[in-house]
Design a protein that fits this description.
- By secondary structure, the protein is an all-alpha fold.
- The chain has one domain.
- 97% of the residues lie in helices and 0% in strands.
- The protein is built from two helices and no strands.
- Helix 1 runs antiparallel to helix 2.
- The mean pLDDT is 85.
Length: 150
């Protein structure tokens, strides 16, 4: 057993050396890769700085847009009540205009009746002056009415 123990002891004591040999081998592989990565990083870092500056400018522009939208929103809070007042005023004015329109329609009809009466009187006077027969008078009156309503 002492020989087996000695073998195990030698193997156990050689583990740190084996581990260091593996680490050295890994570092020998990693170091050339890092030698390639480091120069690439000298290009990537300025590019990232440019991206950061661009993003800062975009953020500033978005802040400006947000401020503008807030101002527009504030203006709309004043415009909306004003439009509501105008709408209320128009709601009151529309019935009044309808009433005026109806009144003007009746006035128009009354004026048409007056016009018809004047046409009758005018045709009668014309016929009296020309000494027309009653049938001629009625024919001219009918023609006057047709002229008024067509």
């Amino acid at each position: 057993m002492s020989g087996t123990f000695a073998a195990w002891a030698r193997w156990f004591c050689s583990l740190p050396n084996l581990t260091l040999a593996l680490v050295n081998t890994a570092l020998a592989l990693v170091n050339p890769a890092l030698a390639l990565v480091n120069p690439a990083l000298t290009f990537v870092n300025p590019a990232l700085t440019f991206v950061n500056i661009t993003l800062a400018l975009v953020n500033t522009a978005l802040d400006f847009v947000n401020i503008t939208l807030a101002l527009v929103n504030t203006a709309l809070t004043f415009v909306n009540p004003a439009l509501t007042l105008v709408n209320s005023a128009l709601t009151l004015i529309n019935p009044a205009l309808t009433l005026v329109n109806t009144t003007l329609t009746f006035v128009n009809l009354a004026l048409a009746l007056v016009n018809s009466a004047l046409a009758f009187v005018n045709s009668d006077m014309h016929l009296i002056n020309t000494k027309a027969t009653p049938a001629e008078v009625r024919t001219l009156q009918l023609m006057s009415l047709l002229a008024i309503y067509t």
